[in-house]
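Issue 218. Parser rejects a valid record. Input:
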Amino acid sequence: MTGTSAPPVAPRVSDEIRAILEAAFAPSQLDVINDSDQHAGHAGHDGGGESHFTVVIESAAFAGQNRVARQRMVNKALGDIPGQRVHALAIRASAPGEAT
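Output the parser choked on:
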Protein backbone atom coordinates (compact mmCIF):
# COMPACT_ATOMS: atom_id res chain seq x y z
CA MET A 1 0.00 0.00 0.00
CA THR A 2 1.39 3.32 -1.02
CA GLY A 3 1.23 5.96 1.67
CA THR A 4 0.06 9.41 0.84
CA SER A 5 1.49 12.40 2.49
CA ALA A 6 -0.58 15.25 3.70
CA PRO A 7 -0.15 18.54 1.89
CA PRO A 8 2.39 20.82 3.52
CA VAL A 9 0.98 22.95 6.28
CA ALA A 10 1.51 26.64 5.80
CA PRO A 11 3.51 28.19 8.61
CA ARG A 12 1.59 30.26 11.10
CA VAL A 13 1.74 33.98 10.40
CA SER A 14 3.06 34.59 13.91
CA ASP A 15 5.97 32.21 13.22
CA GLU A 16 6.72 33.97 9.93
CA ILE A 17 6.68 37.37 11.63
CA ARG A 18 9.05 36.11 14.33
CA ALA A 19 11.48 34.55 11.84
CA ILE A 20 11.58 37.62 9.61
CA LEU A 21 12.14 40.05 12.49
CA GLU A 22 14.81 37.85 14.08
CA ALA A 23 16.70 37.73 10.77
CA ALA A 24 16.29 41.45 10.03
CA PHE A 25 17.00 42.96 13.44
CA ALA A 26 18.72 40.38 15.70
CA PRO A 27 16.49 41.60 18.55
CA SER A 28 17.44 41.40 22.20
CA GLN A 29 13.70 41.07 22.91
CA LEU A 30 10.89 39.98 20.62
CA ASP A 31 7.29 39.24 21.49
CA VAL A 32 4.75 38.49 18.77
CA ILE A 33 1.36 38.64 20.43
CA ASN A 34 -1.71 37.35 18.65
CA ASP A 35 -4.57 39.74 19.47
CA SER A 36 -7.02 38.23 16.97
CA ASP A 37 -9.46 36.80 19.53
CA GLN A 38 -10.00 40.29 20.92
CA HIS A 39 -11.31 41.37 17.50
CA ALA A 40 -13.83 38.64 16.74
CA GLY A 41 -16.74 40.18 14.87
CA HIS A 42 -14.79 43.32 13.98
CA ALA A 43 -13.66 44.44 10.55
CA GLY A 44 -10.68 42.50 9.31
CA HIS A 45 -11.13 39.51 11.62
CA ASP A 46 -10.51 36.56 9.33
CA GLY A 47 -12.06 33.87 11.49
CA GLY A 48 -8.79 31.96 11.24
CA GLY A 49 -7.24 33.51 14.29
CA GLU A 50 -4.33 35.35 12.65
CA SER A 51 -5.62 38.78 11.71
CA HIS A 52 -4.41 41.11 14.49
CA PHE A 53 -0.96 41.19 16.13
CA THR A 54 1.16 43.28 18.46
CA VAL A 55 4.93 43.16 18.02
CA VAL A 56 7.17 44.27 20.88
CA ILE A 57 10.74 44.40 19.65
CA GLU A 58 13.98 45.72 21.08
CA SER A 59 16.99 45.99 18.79
CA ALA A 60 20.16 48.04 18.46
CA ALA A 61 19.03 48.67 14.86
CA PHE A 62 16.48 51.16 16.22
CA ALA A 63 19.03 53.36 18.04
CA GLY A 64 18.77 56.96 16.86
CA GLN A 65 15.54 56.32 14.94
CA ASN A 66 12.23 57.97 15.83
CA ARG A 67 9.02 56.00 16.37
CA VAL A 68 7.76 56.42 12.81
CA ALA A 69 11.09 55.37 11.29
CA ARG A 70 11.16 52.28 13.49
CA GLN A 71 7.65 51.30 12.44
CA ARG A 72 8.59 51.78 8.80
CA MET A 73 11.65 49.57 9.28
CA VAL A 74 9.51 46.79 10.76
CA ASN A 75 6.81 47.09 8.10
CA LYS A 76 9.41 47.05 5.33
CA ALA A 77 11.03 43.92 6.75
CA LEU A 78 7.63 42.19 6.93
CA GLY A 79 6.83 42.89 3.29
CA ASP A 80 3.29 41.92 2.33
CA ILE A 81 2.28 40.57 5.73
CA PRO A 82 0.87 43.85 7.13
CA GLY A 83 -2.12 44.97 5.14
CA GLN A 84 -2.29 41.88 2.94
CA ARG A 85 -2.19 38.88 5.26
CA VAL A 86 -2.67 40.64 8.59
CA HIS A 87 -5.40 43.22 9.08
CA ALA A 88 -3.78 45.09 11.98
CA LEU A 89 -0.26 45.21 13.36
CA ALA A 90 0.66 47.29 16.42
CA ILE A 91 4.40 47.88 16.74
CA ARG A 92 6.31 48.86 19.87
CA ALA A 93 9.94 49.15 18.81
CA SER A 94 12.77 50.32 21.04
CA ALA A 95 16.54 50.33 21.27
CA PRO A 96 18.28 48.59 24.20
CA GLY A 97 18.18 50.68 27.36
CA GLU A 98 15.15 52.74 26.36
CA ALA A 99 12.01 52.80 28.48
CA THR A 100 9.07 51.24 26.68
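Fixed in the parser; the record now loads. Helices lie at 13-25, 67-78, 81-85.
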